[in-house]
């Protein structure tokens, strides 16, 4: 079985994680964790199934520029690189993924309870980031570390 491709939607409070199916066709939300817990979950997944690539949501401004948010995400990327040596890390433009995730959750009729809703949004946003990456065809190209996307 091929190693997994996962996506991370980094936030200052929570990190959404999504995992691709073994055929690398579909993204599925995996969960929402604290920053530390997300690293531990990824390490455990890497031991169990292997991880080939981690696609990290890259929070560009609406104008497509980097800013304070990308600096915070870069620090987390460095943490992931240290925790998971040899795993390719890809930055992927995540503009509008949280809004799209909220819209899709509303469309599925998920209850609008406040508790737990943000966690679902984070995991769903990671799923959208991963699905965009899978749909782009980049997953099969063996692109280098930290290439941009979208």
Tag the structure with descriptive keywords:
five-stranded mixed beta sheet; Nucleotidyltransferase, domain 5; globular; single chain; 150 residues; 5 strands; 41% helix; alpha/beta; 4 helices
CATH architecture: 2-Layer Sandwich
The total domain count is 1
Q: What is the number of helices?
A: 4
State the helical fraction: 40-55%
**Strand order across the biggest sheet?**
3-2-1-4-5
CATH class equals: Alpha Beta
- According to DSSP, the number of beta strands is 5
Gap from first CA to last CA: 27 Å
- Protein structure class: alpha/beta
Largest sheet features: 5 strands, mixed
- The outline comes out as globular
Task: Calculate the mean pLDDT score and round it.
Answer: 84
CATH superfamily: YqgF/RNase H-like domain
- The value of Rg in angstroms is 14 Å
- The fraction of residues in strands falls at 15-25%
What is the CATH T-level topology? Nucleotidyltransferase, domain 5
Q: What's the helix-strand series? A: EEEHEHEHH
Q: Would you kindly provide a written description of the structure presented here, covering whatever features stand out?
A:
This protein has 150 residues and is an alpha/beta fold. It has one domain: YqgF/RNase H-like domain (Nucleotidyltransferase, domain 5), CATH 3.30.420. The protein is built from 4 helices and 5 strands. It has helices at 35-48, 68-83, 97-107, 117-136; strands at 4-10, 15-20, 27-33, 51-58, 88-93.
